[in-house]
Amino acid sequence: MIRLSNVEKSYDLAGGKVFVLRRIDLEIREGDFVSIMGPSGAGKSTLLHILGMHDSAFSGDYEFLGEPVPRLGRKQRLELQKRNIGFVFQSYHLLDDLTVYENLELPLSYRDLKKSDRQGIVADVLDRFQIVGKKDLYPNQLSGGQQQLVGVARAIVANPKLVLADEPTGNLHSDQGREIMELFRRLNEQGTTIVQVTHSETNASYGKRIVKLKDGWLVKD
């Protein structure tokens, strides 16, 4: 599904070039559940944003579902991303001017689905996450934990091939966090590929592989 070859990310600063990622070679197969770990500043979130095609300013090769990502135009890249990838961000990234319901329906708008089908899928996800009563509220009317739950629900609502999660349980209490990790496990058992960034050994243990970064280098897989 994913093949990274000699991927590097750097910034030009006054004192010279500073590398965030160095010579990353990584393969992720369909059905994998990968946990990316490492100390703060190791390059974990940067790697996740490259995988998610939010960051195209890197060198090296990245293949996703056989497509050469760096050589795609912006529109092609966006289409590939929206049709195949769901994101869970540490800082939610919900759209403030849309209700919970509308935030959840948005990823479905990129699929060829009838309105009645979209409504049915959103209703099912609202029920599964026990947030039916929040569907007409806006993000700023929700607590941090509730926003995180909506963020996870939005990531999976369109049944993506790949879910990328950056500290997915960081704003949840332990019971909610455990529920989310169990949900990820079930999704993975059903065939969804998952890549999460986490500091939590407990969360990492839900995965099949642990990839460790240090100072931008991949030090263990």
What general form does the structure show? globular
Tally of helical segments:
7
How many domains? The number is: 1
In the CATH classification, which architecture applies?
3-Layer(aba) Sandwich
Output the CATH topology. Rossmann fold
Overall helicity: 25-40%
Q: What's the gyration radius in Å?
A: 18 Å
- Written as H for each helix and E for each strand, in order along the chain, the element string is EEEHEEHEHHHEHEHEE
Strand order of the largest sheet: 6-7-8-3-9-10
Q: How many beta-strand runs?
A: 10
The biggest beta sheet is recorded as: 6 strands, mixed
Distance between the termini: 17 Å
Beta fraction: 25-35%
Unreliable spans: none
Describe the protein:
- It is built from 7 helices and 10 strands.
- The longest helix has 16 residues.
- The protein is an alpha/beta fold.
- The model has no long low-confidence stretch (mean pLDDT 94).
Topology:
Layout (H helix, E strand, L loop, with lengths): L1 E12 L2 E13 L4 E5 L6 H8 L7 E6 L2 E2 L5 H11 E4 L11 H6 L9 H14 L15 H13 L5 E5 L7 H16 L3 E5 L3 H4 L4 E6 L2 E4 L1
Parallel strand pairs: 3-8, 3-9, 6-7, 7-8
Antiparallel strand pairs: 1-2, 1-4, 4-5, 9-10
